[in-house]
Amino acid sequence: MSDSKYNIIAGLGNPGKEYARTRHNIGFMALDVLASKFCLTFDKTRFDSEYVKARIKGKDVFLIKPLTYMNRSGISIHKFAAYYKIEIQDIIIVHDDMDLDFGKIKIVKSRGHGGHNGVRSIMEAFGNNDYIRVRVGVGHPSSGRDITGHVLGGFSPDEMPLLDKTTDTASNACLHILENGVISAMNAFNQSPDP
Is residue 113 among the annotated active site residues? Predict the structure, then answer.
């Protein structure tokens, strides 16, 4: 983390009730869990985002949920960062990731978008990829199911018990990054111990 006055934690997802409990919205869900830990509500809108500003772990943080739909997430986040002069390395992005098994969390920095359209939008908006990502595993679709249907689909009954634990872990990863930095967080969360 640099000397920016503010930090951003942005969860990726799609607005609207029809998307609320889909795999693609696990970033939104993780941010809701994070906000609830500090009794915060997303009661403001700016730059095409729902957001709340708070003091968390000694830092001034904007929690942001872009309302631009997934493929245009970068536009909203970039407007926030530009307006408040927030350095890209002080931005944490929480998003779904099909390349990780459901329930797995992986923290990465300065990596490619991996085919994720929301992350691609952020890379294009900023012109580089120096932000931190908390990748939240949603698993690959079963054979015969298309990718769009998978990420825009709801969680299976088998996944539901693990969903709350997963979003809680993702929110804790964000807090760890704020408090201890990304390297410490990678060491703590990327080991993926088996349950």
Answer: no
pLDDT at 25: 95
- Please give the tally of structural domains in the chain: 1
Helices (H), the chain: 26-37, 73-83, 117-126, 147-151, 160-180, 182-189
Q: Is residue 1 part of a domain?
A: no
Contact 50, 165 (CB under 8 A): no
Q: And the tokens for 144?
A: 């015969």
CATH number for the domain that contains residue 138: 3.40.50.1470
List the catalytic residue out of 24, 95, 150, 176. 24
CA distances from residue 47 to 44, 52, 63, 82, 148 in whole angstroms, order as listed: 10, 13, 13, 11, 27
What is the domain extent for residue 105? 6-189
Q: Are residues 105 and 173 in contact, defined by beta-carbon separation less than 8 angstroms?
A: yes
**How many residues in total does the chain contain?**
195
Closest CA to 64 of 3, 12, 26: 12
**Helix, strand, coil share (%) of the chain residues, nearest 5:** 40, 25, 35
Q: Within a 10 A sphere around the Cβ of 160, how many other Cβ atoms? A: 11
pLDDT in tens, 2-37: 556 899 999 999 999 999 999 999 999 999 999 999
> What predicted TM-score, i.e. pTM, was given to this entire model?
0.93
- In a domain, residue 151? The reply is yes
